[in-house]
Structures are given as structure tokens and as C-alpha cells.
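Case study.
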Amino acid sequence: METIHLTGDTLNNFATEIRQTTGEDTSRCYQCGNCTAGCPYTEFFDYPVSQIMRMIQTGQREKALNSRAIWLCATCETCSTRCPCEIDVADVMDGLRNIAYREKRFTERDIRTFYEAFLTSLKHHGRIFELEIIARYNLKSGHLLTDADLGPKVMKQLHFLPKRIKGRDDVARIIKRFMEKK
Amino acid sequence: MRVGVFICHCGNNIAGTVDVARAAEETAKLPHVVYSTHYMYTCSEPGQDEIKQAIKRENLDRVVVAACSPRMHELTFRRTVEKAGLNRYFFEMANIREHISWIGENKELNTNKAIEAVRMAVEKVIRDKPLHSTAFKINKRVLVIGAGVAGMQSALDCADGGLDVVLVEKSPAIGGMMARLDKTFPTIDCSICILGPKMVDVAQHEHISLHAYSEIEEIKGYVGNYQVKVRKKTPYVDWTKCTGCGECMEKCPTKNAYDRFNFGVAPTRAINIPFPQAIPKKATIDAQYCRQIQKGKCGVCAKVCRANAINFELPDQFVTEEVGAIIVASGYGLIDQELLPEYGGGRYPDVITGIQYERLLNASGPTSGHIQRPSDGTEPKSIVFVSCAGSRDKSIGIPYCSNFCCMYIAKQAILTKDHIPDSQSYVFYMDIRATGKGYDEFTRRAQEDYGAKYIRGRVSRIYPKGKKMIVQGADTLLGAKVEVEADLVVLATAATAAPGAAALAEKLHISYDTHGFYVESHPKLRPVETNTAGVYLAGAAQGPKDIPASVGQGSAAAAKVLALFSRDMLESDPAIARVNQNACVGCLKCVKTCPFQAIKEQELRGGEVVASVIETICAGCGVCTSTCPCGAIQLQHFTDNQLLAEVNSLCLS
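After joint prediction, the assembly is written out as follows.
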């Protein structure tokens, strides 16, 4: 394994960036591991979430932002609920994902595709339109037949036309603003 | 008036950021100041000699020392000026360390501020009046609250020193938490074997009178002369007749009463004697479960009792004890498992607490020392210990370490292996805090000789799966999530203040921290004193503590009481409130606001009603002076005129 060289700057810069993005103070983490202990997705992660927290503390920006874990996190918030130091760990994961997105570090391309399909649908209708998301995701990801076997089952519950809501334009504006933000 | 000013360098503490030479030079020009100097350490012996000589040489009649906080050295310098022949209240201290040199970096500004602080002190000192204390007698009896190991140690040490001791214990038997433990770390000696003889000593000592099953109702008075009203809760049994035979307990038909002594490990009877070695060995009825008291139908115990001791009508009784000092050793509590929903919150029978496990290990416990799963009575083979179950957890309001869990978990892991040789213990920990003598070696023994598997990480969740409990945790050293299938899980639940700690503190007029633990007078130098004269602390009431530390504090508190009682008379502090009865309009607002009940109404000969201060009770807090609408009540040494003169000197500069 590589040797990590710790210096004052590397230790502080990334943590400060995370604090500015999310408002969370990762220096409070004392590495008890309770976030990892409760995480239902740890087995799919390349790094357990407590190690992601440690990467922030030790300034390992590249490693954290290129990890698969930040994309695979389902934001179930078990980690945030269990954290004895009152850190919103799920919010930190979200913040990392945002930074990674802006820097075009798409370690999990399919998940990025899904997020974009989701947001596009939201932008168009002000709420999600499942059929559109499925179509966009399957086309863009190239997994044309993903979950096709579930088709007949869900057809009963899916709407064939989008439902429109009030304030649709406002939602679109929020999404546009986020996309333009650097 | 001739004032002398002495400015202290405090090494570099003050001289580093205050130009002491310039401060001395400038303050020498103040009105009434005839002498001003600076010195390296004014509190040192040569420093104090310099003050004494200057008083003689310069014929000074008032002294100002500009140095540290009066909390630190006011008494030191009061004694110095007194030795030189001045009244000890002709002295003022300007705090130029904590208030100035430690908090500001700009030397010039600091020096200006120091000069102003001295000027204020000079304005006060020239208005100071001579005050004299009065002497009063001490009642040389001591009250000890709580008969756990700390309180018993205090009681025995005081009694051996010849003092009469009143020992009040709220549960029916003495011994506290230690009486419930099986073995003790790090020597694995049997807890009740070393505590039992002490309990017998307490019961038989000619100088100790014990009130078991009693609580403090009310405390009045002051150091040297307290009146304490004790509520002796009714056990519904006449203890003067009860022989402790236990017949009633055997025949009692209510078999599902909560066993407070055993922390509910197994049910007990509505009438019971808590444990075989109990002192006093007397039966107590738990009214909540008694059929006779709740429904008026039963009375079996009264029928079987040969001593005719049962009395369902027996009321609470009150006794008033007069004492001169109080030692508070009221112990600690444990958090409720309900605060830990991720560990089942008490819903799973096979997830128990550390103290419950002690009772399972204990030969005189409900299982006669056989470790059994509460759910089905089988012997567990895989046991998981969870440390910091609530401790060091800011999210539930317990940011502190509970002090003794690391050690008792190691001990329980060792004992588990002794009881069940083919068992495997797992310990989830965040840090191993084993700082006492022989402690770290002990935790190593648990791992190296007894094979306990220590895993560094917290436990996120515990849930049942078939007959097993699944413990979901992390191994942060490995960087991975881990799971253990356990037969039994033991939670080292966090130690808290004892239930009712805050209410007792308010009766005693002592302070407690945000968690309910009592606050000592100084964390290093006055660890068993409180800020209320005559009230001392011992044991875990002050913060979670293990047995050696509790015993040490118990003895320390006793030594403090013996020192206090070595004199026959005490001197009162004259810096207390006084009423100018010519100005008092008799509104008696002060009587209502006084937190010490130190002010009473008095009728003068002409029939007018005025306030009057009871000198020995007044603590000099000053609440009354700010309440009085006509300035009739004044705190001596801090009168309105004295304080306003200080403020004026600052505003006019």
C-alpha cells in the first residue's frame, strides 16, 4: 500500500472544502466506525464510509473523489443517525458527490446517468415521471433491457402520461441554477 | 490616608505583556498613594516580607496588590497585612493577570488597563471599613449521605477519629453498587468478601447511627450547625421487631415484583430482604406490588410473621439530626436502555447491562452464579461486550467517559472464561482506558491469557435472528464491517448522576454540572470540598469513579471533617449583609429573595417591621442588596458606595 505523507495543508484543505460545501465539521469524527457498522451498502463499496471520513481528515482528496463509494451511497442516513459525534455523514457523502460531479469524475457512469435522467424528468415536469426516467436511463446507459422482466408487474402502477404540477418552472430554475454553478 | 501599591510580575505571566515598571511609576502618582513598587513574585515569602516592611517603613494604612485573581491569593495577602498590624479588610486586589495580561497581547494597552485596574482598587481601598469576624461553636457530629463504599469509608474514618456519625442510606440495605458486584478488578477478589466486614463495622460501630431506607427531607443551618430533617420511609415492617428470618419472603404470594437490588435480572417477592448479607437484615414491603396495600386482600406475611412485625399502616417517620458537617456520597446511576434503541432499547431479553451480568456471575445472585441466558436459561457460548453503550456519545447528551467500564468488561470477559471454558468473548471498544495501577496489564491478560477478542469499533445495531443476537459492528483497524452471532450481549451502559442528585444538591446548596454530578471546589487542589463551607464530596457523586478512587475520596473527605472539627470555635465571615434599620421600609423583598433563608423579619419597639440578617447563615452572595428598593441592606466590604467609587474612577478617566 502507498505511504500517505501527512502535512498541515493536506490535512486541512480538503476538510475545509467539505465544511464549506456541507457545513459539516469532519474533525469531530473519532473513527469509532459506527457509520460503517450500520451501512447497508458497505459490501459494494470500495472504501467503507468511515474510511472516506478518514480520507477527508487526512486530505486524500483524489482518492475520496474518485471512489465508487460516494456514488453507491443510497443516502439512507443510517450513518448520520448513529454518529455519536453528531456529524451528518450522509450529507458529507452527498457533498463529495457534488464536487465529483462538477469535476466530471464519474467513477460510476450508470449512476450519473440515472441521476441525470432523474433530474431531467424533474426539470420537465416539476415531479418525476417514471416511464421517462426508465427510458432515458436505459437508452443512455446502453442497458436497454435492464429490469425489463419487472415490466409487466409495474405496468399496473405506472402512469403513461406525466402529471404536471404547479411551480414546475420554479423547479426547473433551481435545477438550472445548480447545473450552471461552478 | 497612605496607600501602598505592589505590582507583581508573576514571572513572565504578567511582566511579559504588561510594563510593570511604568505601571508602578504611574500608579505612584494616584491620590492617596504614597508608595508603589513592583516585584517578581509578590506571593513568595520575600514578596510578602516586602509588603510587611513597607507598611512599617512608609507608615501605610491601606494596601493594594495588583497580581492574579483574588480567588487565588486574596486570603494570602489579607493574612500578610494582618501580620503587619492592619485590619485584614484594608486590602484590595487588582486582577491584572486573568483580566489583562493573559488575554491581551498589546503591551501598551495592557499597561494602561493595568493602571486603571489599580486606580479602581485604590478608590475602593480608601473606602474600606475595618471588619471583624465573630466566633461561634461547632457541633462535632457529621452527617454522611449514602452508604456505598465511599460513604461507609467516610463514616468509619470519622467514627474511628472519635466523631459521632449519622449515616443515611436511601435503599433498605447498605453497601451500594459494590455490594452487587461479583469480583473486583484488577485483583479478582470477591467484592462482598472485602465489603462485608466493612458493612458489619458500620453496623456495630458505637459512634455510627444508621438510618437505612431514609432520605434527606430538609437541611437548614450553616457550617458547624446544621439541622437535618431525615424522612425514614416506611418499610411497612416494624424493624425493631423484625428478626430477618425471611419466612415472610418465602410465603409472599406476589412473585413478580421488580428486584431493585438485582436490577430486574429475576423477579422477587413484594416483601423481601434484598440479599443474604444485607445490613440491616430486615424485611421491606414494596408497596407497588403488595396485594394487601394495593387491593386490601392478602396479609399472608402478617399471618406468618412470628415476631408480629408487619404493620400495613406504618407511616413515614421524621427525625431531626443536628450536625456540624456533611459528607455527600450519594453515588451514581446508569442510563436506561431505552436511550439505546439501536441495541434493542431493553426489548431483547438476551441484551443485558453490565451490572445485570454482575448479578448473573455472582454466587449469591438469582442464578447462584451460573451464567444463563435470560430468554431460555441456556448457557451462552458466544458473548459480546459493547463498551461505551451511551458513554462518549454527545448525541444522547453524555459526552464524558464512564471511567470504569473498560476495566469491568475485561474482568467480566476473564470471569466468563472461568465460568464457561468453551465460551468465546468479543469486546467492541473505541479506546481501552486502563490508566490505574496494574490496569493495562489486566486488560492485556483478558486478551492474551483468556482469549477475549477485542475489536476496535462501535456497534451500530443489535437484532435477533432465531435464537441468536446479531451484533453489527465495525473493525476500524481492518477498515471493514463485521458481524458476530452472539448468544448473549452485555452493554456497558453509561454511568450517570444518581436519580434525584439535583434535588439533593439544591437542599445542600451545592452546585452540580450539566450532567448532575456535584462540582468540587477546585478540580485539582480542593477535590473533595464544595463551595459551601462544611459540605464535602466523596465517590461517584462527583463523577464516575472506580472503587479505589471512591475509597480514597471517602477517606479524604473524612480527613477534611476531622481537620474542621479539630477546633472548638469557627470564625464567621464578616463580609455579609447588614440592614440599616433606619432606612428599611419593611417591604421584606429581601426575605423572599434570599437563597439561604438568612433574613428574617423583626419587630422594633415602636411596632415597625424591618428586615434583620442572621449573621451565621448569610453567605454574602449580595442578592438582597440588588433587591432592596431603598438601599437599606448593604453587603459589607461591597457596599454601593464602594462599588460606585470604583465605577466612577473608571468612567472619569
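Observations recorded in class. Residues 577-636 of chain B form a domain with the Alpha-Beta Plaits fold (CATH 3.30.70.20). The first strand of chain B starts at residue 3 and ends at 8. We will return to this complex in the next lecture.
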